[in-house]
Amino acid sequence: MKNSTNDITYEQLTSQETELQEEEEEEEEEEEEEEEEEEEEESSDFFDPTKIRITTKQITMDLLIKRIEYKEINLNPDFQRNANIWTDKAKSRLIESLLIRIPLPAFYMDATKEDEWLIIDGLQRLSTFKSFILDQKLVLKDLEFLKELEKNKYSDLSRNYKRRINEAEFIVYLIEPGTPPKVKYNIFRRINTGGLPLNLQEFRQAINPGQAIKILKELANIPEFQKLTSFSQKRKNRMVDHEFILGFIAFTLISYNCYSSDKGRDDFLDQAMKKLNKIDENRVQEIKNKFIFAMKAANNIFGEDAFRKIRKITEDGKRKYPINKALFESWSVTLSDLSEQELETLIERKENVKEVFIKKMEDDSNFLESVSQAATKVPYRFDTIKEIIKEVLSC
């Protein structure tokens, strides 16, 4: 699923940019391309047109505002970190469009819950309506045609203008209950026009509200995790960090031996998200402790090479592979199960750990293949990481 996040490429970099910036940009592109390939592979069988259930309604502004007022439209979706990014000028121009009766694009919403519609496309517009009509915080500015209305709030408008706003009609497409999650994902992915299409993790968080999202947010702020992954803000906004953490949690909650290649990694993470919403506080704390332990262990053993394929030092001695989902999951989960004494031994022998790891990458084509795609040969890569640790500990 190709998206527009790769707006900077190596070829576009100017000669004034430093070599370090070039390397960082190229590494980010490699990571995004790897994720897109996995996403295309995992979502290729999602779409079944016979299972789509969408109805069309014509709704007035009055009805939309009532739903917003009673929190029957969710304006704070956990799958969007940039839910309110329009400038006051852009918001004012939207209101002006209503006042001069310019038709606006349709809204798309997930109506699985009758009393809480989830916005798929149109969040910025609805947030603007709320700010202007309900909250009365938006003051009109930089209007193109109705200059006389600048500096006006909703309450300042004449009855004529208020009526134009309140009687404005919108087409709303509602995804009805009974639409399977995987079909719903494909709909989300295809019709989101307000920004980038939702990726798998954004969708996963959209349809699985609850404590799981809070846990992912908390663990994403762990200093060791941030240091080892160094995700750009752009990638954090797309929940890439959350997906990596969910991978750790998934293989902590569900044994890798239970992983089904037929169902795939996406289904496995979906299961984990649901389980994470149901576990008790003691289990949650146990998972948090294991994650923190694993991040500190990886940092002490690998440093900046953590969760990456490791090259032997090349002539320039600089370039390294991007962070790898498969290695993140297999190394972090395996490290989290170590005893303090075992970890201490591995730290003392960390160069040996790297040597054995590199040798496995070079000599074992199955292992290399297993860490080249996060969704393939899962048990094999976990078993190999365990063998590496066992070999080093037994030296």
TrEMBL record:
Residues 73-206 form the GmrSD restriction endonucleases N-terminal domain. Residues 1-48 are annotated as: Disordered. It comes from the Bacteria. Residues 19-45 have a biased composition (Acidic residues). Transmembrane segments: none annotated. This is GmrSD restriction endonucleases N-terminal domain-containing protein. The lineage of its organism: Bacteria, Bacillati, Cyanobacteriota, Cyanophyceae, Oscillatoriophycideae.
